[in-house]
Amino acid sequence: MSLPPFIDRESGELDLGRIRAEVFPLAGLILLFGGLALLVFLLTLLVAGNSILGGFLVVVTQFTFAVGTGIVLMYVVARGIQLADEEEQSR
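Request: output the structure for the sequence above.
Response:
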């Protein structure tokens, strides 16, 4: 019987080291795109206001969130496939 991912084979408990190793790159991607979108949105609030430029920058902010979400989801799926392949090879 195979154990679920992130479970230590010997003790049967959560492998916190492996969980941390997977969380940091994912959190970095989320912070990167969230920070970029926040920066553009703050620029909109402080500079553009209710002008046409402001409307455009709001659209850029939403686009940044959409692209960031897509990249994070692709990373999660690709990493899940890699982990499944590693698990399959270790058997």
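The chain has a mean pLDDT of 88.
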